[in-house]
Amino acid sequence: MTKFQQFISRVNPLRLVLGLTPSAARGITLAAAAVLTLLIVFLFSSNLVTLEERLGAQGWVMSAEQTPEERVTIVAIDERSLAEVGPWPWSRDNMARLVGALNQAGARLQIHDITYPEPRAADAALIAALNNAPGVVLGQVPVLSGNGTGYVAGHGVSAADTGEALSHDVRTGQMTHPVAGVSCSADNTSGSYVANHAGLSGFAAGHITPRVDADGAVRRVPAVVCVDGQAYPTLAIASLLMATQADNWQASIQPGEGWLGPEQEMHLASYPGLAIPLDSKGDLRISYQAAPESFRAVSAIDVINGDIPEGMLSNGWALIGATAFGMGDIVPTPYNGSVPGVELQARLISSLLDASMPYTPAGATILLIAFSLVAAVLLFGLAASRRESLTAYGLPAAAILLPVAALLMHWQLLSYSNIWLGWMSPAIFTLLAATLLLLLEQGRIRAERTRVFGNLTSYLPSNVARDIAYSLPTSAINAQRCDVTLLSADLRNFSAFGEARPPEESAALLHYFFTRAAEVVARHGGHIHEFKGDGLLAVWEGQSSAAANAAFLAAQEMQENIHKEMPQQPPAGLEPLALGIGIEQGPALRGSIGPAHRRTHTLLGDSVTITLRIQEMTAELAQPILLGECIARQLSDHKLESQGSYLLNGLRIPHVLFAPATDGAAIRRARQDQLNLKVVSGGR
What we know:
By secondary structure, the protein is of the alpha/beta class. The protein has 22 helices and 26 strands.
């Protein structure tokens, strides 16, 4: 492993978290989800805001209000009107004809979503017609930075004028009718504008400048836009002020009341009791609660020709604006990708008349945090459940349902309380928190299973441990026939040694023997089947000569290394410790038996019994290693000596035993070592 890999392994967040207590790990995971949420919102705020706005507005679409709006009628300068009257902008004579027709139809208030920036011929006719109207409000366009040129075009302003006004600090016409008592802010201040010429300064005016979002949609309109320190109200508010017939336009903007109230409220002196909710920038949010079909529209040419139902405009408000697609006044809405901007003015006016303007409450952040905290507690409970199935299925379900719940809560508040709460932040948090907790719990379960499997393999062969780990408990016999090569090793005289020594010393000695013997067996390709008492049983797969040679070499290495490292100074009156090894090959039955709640892994068959009995004969024949006749046939490359035929304990058929051939001197030295004899000079 490289240094970099070692570093990554050490700083692995999952490894670090898994090292903590479960509760602490889950708490840190939730905190990490919160930090990641803040980071994502900060890095991708523009895209996320657009997504939040688009999906959030679907609450309006799904519960759209179908009641017809009869107070405001859109007088549309549409394709038919352009075809009959001529291209836009129309002459002042034609506009005078339209205004006169609206007067004859009985319109109480004419609201022009149109600007007349330069004097033209026949202005006198238009002014005369406007003077005959019961009430008139004209449009004026202070240009806010970032709004682009597309929206301003189509309001009676030529493309050349629009481009010039936006590209330079140019002022066309004269801004009129500011509202007193409202202070200006940097967010709503403009240095350029396209307004009506001085000849129309006697008529009320309101600005028609929206706040254009990054995706081209219009969702907010500044309540006032400041030019030269004067606050000019939006066309909808100007229409409301004009309808009150107030001599002086007075208003105030105050902080909202309570954490469920708006951030700011605008109050009109001539309209007591009306509180217009504004956001922190002083913007109105446009309501899309009403379906587009609920707004009445009539073609301007029909009005001019008198081809409208009798009484349609009587005592109502006529909103004059462009709807022809080629005039550039087209914006996307939740209902349609291309809607004339005049419809937005109708929505603003209708919301003001109904006193049902949507707004974001001052305590929106608190509400979203509260929702996130409740979701975090729920996720913590799912992750901490003792039922693994609840965690395994509950967290993925929560990762989907909780963001949906945040969106549904937003929709409900929007539809029934006109509260735009927002939903993106808690949705991201709950998705991240549920996902990270699921990863944490899966990592914890995996780590625990790995630890359990590791512990299981320390008691059982790895293949057996794997079968047990990935199988359901059963009370049936689960065993298969197999061919094996067996090695049984036993510490002679260990019982007497343990009787004379402290148990800690006996345990240390036995631990050393088992550890070294297991290393030797593994080095030669075998595995330990079991440790039992002061002996062990090792297994090699198959009855091949390769398995026989591996077992034989392992036995010799045990005798050469482990035996020499055993204590050679036994307690007084005891024989020294010695190692006896028996080896044989043959068929066996390997598997697990016993009830489901208490199984044991076993190796059964004559081959096992014979191997154990051969090992017992090593003490009687004073041979450190004895081999059965089956394995002896496989060891043709080794010199073996027959030890005779013996009736092994508990068996009925005699077996010929073999031992490695050694010279006499070696035998004498081995026996001397076993007896631990010492030659002393002199004596009697």
